[in-house]
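Q: Give me the 3D complex with glutamine.
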Amino acid sequence: MAKYIFVTGGVVSSLGKGITASSLGKLLETNGLKVTLMKCDPYINVDAGTMNPYQHGEVYVTEDGAETDLDLGHYERFTHAKLGSANNITTGKIYYSVITKERKGDYLGKCVQIIPHITDEIKNSIKHVAHEQNVDVVIVEIGGTVGDIESLPFLEAIRQLKLELGRDYAINIHVTLVPYIKAAGEIKTKPTQHSVGTLREIGISPDIIICRTEKELHKESREKIALFCNVDKEAVIPALDVKSIYEVPQMLREEGLDRLVVRLLNLKCDDEDLTEWQNSVVKVVRSPSKEVPIAVVGKYIIHQDAYKSIYEALSHGGIANDARLLIKRVDSEDIEEHGVEKYLSDVKGLLVPGGFGHRGIEGKIAAIRYAREQKIPFFGICLGMQTAVIEFARNVCGYEKANSTEFDKNTKYPVISLLEEQKKIKGMGASMRLGAYECVLGKITRAHQAYRKDKIQERHRHRYEFNNKYREAFTKAGMVFSGIYPKDDLVEIAELPQHPWFIGCQFHPEFKSKPDNAHPLFREFIKAVVLAKYGKE
Ligand code: GLN
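A: Here is the predicted complex, encoded as structure tokens.
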């Protein structure tokens, strides 16, 4: 039977609960245990797919096509867990399911209530993940901050679940902030005490408290937290700020976190170490031998989390090439206003990520033109590929004002357009081409060189496609379609062999990159960037 670790957060949001949960997952895996992780989000959207990246950050897409919270990206990057739709539940999803059952008559005669019907639905969803994924440990992260009205049903559900399962089968970890007050020159434990107090009011006593802090947590503070929050001293784990998120597992191990979890849950496991991760990831992140400037030109640039997996995958490409990336985040609308030279003349690579809507499109096209003409390595992802196609159509094929029908319905040259079946779709939720699809790679192409395989599977999240009507003309003009979805003959990858490195892909490779196993396209892109700066080795 699986064991459960419930992770809650206190005091403030953005504490890094997701990184903490992922790091613990990583540590337990190095102990030989099979883990999975899940996220409970208290918002009413059924999934993250309908939310703007400004509101919620990136929408992370799983292999089975679920549009999920970005924390699932951390879970997959740190561990080997295979996540899917079931690993992310929301208030909306839970209510949707309960209300559907009510309409069907499943609760006939009963008054349907938050307790027990909503809480039972939450508990069943959590148990379902443990059962289906056949793991030793399920780490369940509750989104939001303790004290929020919205998260109460989730907290009640995990309280009940822990009671049902018994001592050896479930523990609670509470992640809090221990702020440093500069004027007093002291760190303060009071917010943690209050937050744990709030948890205890609803019947949950944490077994472990992880204290996020920018200054060292001295013995007296640890003792104070232990005393006031009713936990053992060794269960107060300091989590100091670190430079790279990939340093967190080792830091938590040094503070004894996984040993304590193994003991509390009475887990049978081997005693392994993190040496490989430390050597292949952390060492390179700390002191790479090279440094290369690249630009990411997008629309949601000011939001830290909007392109989360893109930035992570880029850093993995850096790790694979022993390089630190100096990423210049450029708003494509600024390029429209001030011209491209100002932003791109000093970079050695350009990445244009995915996106939706018309705003900033012309800036992206100008940036891609610059990279193509100046022979700067270019990587376009989803909308990045579509804009590369538009640029090529206009400036190489001579199709004046060519466009995607997403931005100009009446364009004379709809080089990117909707498939017939997408035209019929009315609703917005989960209605795109989503999740993993097969792609066949052309021999002797850059794509094949990167993957070293004939067939791959990559994740999608888009509606528009390359318009096959133009394939021949593009091919004649020098674009190679090196990846195809065979079933419907759709373009998945386009590249320019005459250019040092110019690839656009319709899918999202960033979702499958890992720090210790960089995605082949990111690895090769950064290799080309390093080559552009340092020349041949
Ligand atoms: N807006 C484009 C489409 O729907 C691209 C989507 C994306 O970049 N994820 O096809």
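A quick observation: The radius of gyration is 25 Å.
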